[in-house]
Specification:
Blueprint lengths: L1 E3 L2 E4 L12 E5 L3 E4 L7 H10 L7 E5 L5 H4 L2 H8 L2 E5 L3 H4 L12 H7 L15 E3 L4 E2 L5 E5 L8 E5 L4 E5 L3 E2 L3 E2 L9 H11 L6 E4 L9 H17 L1
Helix pairs in contact: 6-7
The protein binds zinc ion (2 copies).
Length: about 240
């Protein structure tokens, strides 16, 4: 589905086999892929690229919102097929290029410890990160994509703010079940940081919000984030 005129979402939930997280295509002179789903999805992503009128060689960049396997699973295959430049935040890059093992569930502690020997189960094929991203960076596609560092879910989680489209891609900073809320506690590394990051997000000016999982919010998304940030703040004060 089209989230905005120039941003296309490949739903994380289609077909019989699990896809993983949503993949986004930023459609400009070239194509930027944001997140890559689980492993084995490169061909399906490139099918959509061609259906939208672009060639495989038009895929110039791949941006990862964070290091979780359901977002970076097809990264290595997609890099091989396209030669695109890979970008991720400095703090998550070591988990993507394989210098650090991808951690499993963050809590409960006993589960994290029990599962730690089985890290390969959720490890993805490592891929070299070509460009490290940091808070405040601006990339040239779609009139400017601003990088907001929003740690918590992982240390190097980022949101992509695209003012021209009035859109922010928040990935797993927020979930969207019936309304925007906190992501899974099990897979979120630092909840206190996470809440600060949601407050930081509320400082941006956007209408539309797209998530790592589930459907986008197509209007008044900023109001929803402000309400959530206030609710989390009042809970914290109790
Ligand atoms: Zn996810
Ligand atoms: Zn995640």
């Amino acid at each position: 589905m089209f989230v905005t005129q120039n941003v296309y979402q490949l739903s994380g939930r289609r077909g019989a086999r699990p896809w993983g997280a949503n993949t986004f295509l930023l459609l400009d002179k070239s194509v930027t892929v944001v997140d890559t789903g689980l492993g084995g999805k490169a061909a399906s992503i490139l099918n959509e690229v061609s259906r939208l009128g672009y060639k495989t060689s038009d895929v110039a960049y791949i941006i990862l919102t964070h290091h979780h396997t359901d977002h970076v699973g097809s990264l290595a295959e997609l890099k091989k097929a396209t030669g695109a430049k890979i970008m991720a935040h400095t703090a998550d890059a070591p988990y993507i290029d394989g210098s650090l093992p991808q951690p499993g569930p963050a809590r409960p502690k006993w589960l994290a410890m029990m599962l730690s020997p089985f890290g390969r189960m959720w490890a993805s094929t490592p891929a070299e990160v070509d460009k490290l991203l940091n808070d405040g960076d601006e990339l040239p596609m779609l009139g400017g994509v601003k990088i907001l560092h929003t740690p918590g879910h992982t240390p190097g989680s980022i949101c992509l703010f695209i003012p021209q489209e009035k859109l922010v891609i928040v990935s797993d900073l927020l979930s969207n079940r019936s309304q925007p809320g906190l992501p899974s506690r099990i897979f979120t590394a630092d909840m206190a940081q996470e809440i600060n990051s949601i407050k930081k997000l509320a400082g941006l000016d956007f209408d539309i919000m797209a998530f790592g999982h589930g459907r986008p919010v197509l209007r008044e998304a900023h109001e929803a984030v402000t309400r959530l940030a206030e609710k989390l703040e009042s809970k914290r004060e109790v």
